[in-house]
Amino acid sequence: MNFDRKKQIRFKNDDDIRLLREVVARNPIKNKNKWTEVAAVLSTPMFVLDARRVRERTNLLIEQHKRENRENLKKSGVDEDVTERTTLLDEIMELKEEEEREKKEEKEKKEKSENLGKEIRKRALECLTPKKDDESDIPKRRYSQTYLVDYLKEKSEMEIATKRTELELRKEELRLQKAQFDLDREERLQRMEVEKQEKIAFMDLLKKLTNNK
DNA sequence: CTAATTAATCGCTCCTTACC
DNA sequence: GGTAAGGAGCGATTAATTAG
């Protein structure tokens, strides 16, 4: 028995929607401290939340959403209901994926440039270390200096070249990502619109039927 | 009603980041 | 280098909800 444990706060569907809206609006995936803001916005005296609670609830919802998607797919492609709830969850998942991709890329880039630096330094060092005596017809100092200059030149050229290609690649990637994202969003909105129209048509039909009675 | 299932809380640990 | 601070996730425990 633990007496200092808080009373549990259960999320209702409305609460979930409000939560998901805030998460999409503020993107705490990218700015960790935003979890606090989200919690502050959603908290009322009756419904007290902290950043951790908000984060854990979001994760739980996403887990459930993923599970549902998997199951729908298995049951031979039942389309998910197009509701605000699922739309929001999809968007949050995209935010998460985007963040992950960015982190991975950053890491890879860092490693790459580190390796490049190491390599060049190593080679420069090799050329600076004294050779055996039998090569001494070339003055040591001159010998190493020219090589050092060469390597420095090589180094900066390589860096500029790789940076340029990396930048172009990155730009292209971003463009594609954005295009895909916009496409997805457009598709979802359209689906929602179609559903709304169908609902309206259905209601009209109902009205007609009842009036004609 | 009780048993089973699902969700919330919390302690702990691991990771990253900032600072020395 | 290391280490303090804070975020995040995992798992055990407990509480609430649902099924039977």
Automatic annotation (TrEMBL):
- Coiled-coil features, chain-numbered ranges: 85-123
Entry protein name: Uncharacterized protein
Q: Give the source lineage, highest ranks first.
A: Eukaryota, Metazoa, Spiralia, Lophotrochozoa, Mollusca
Enumerate the UniProt keywords alphabetically: Coiled coil
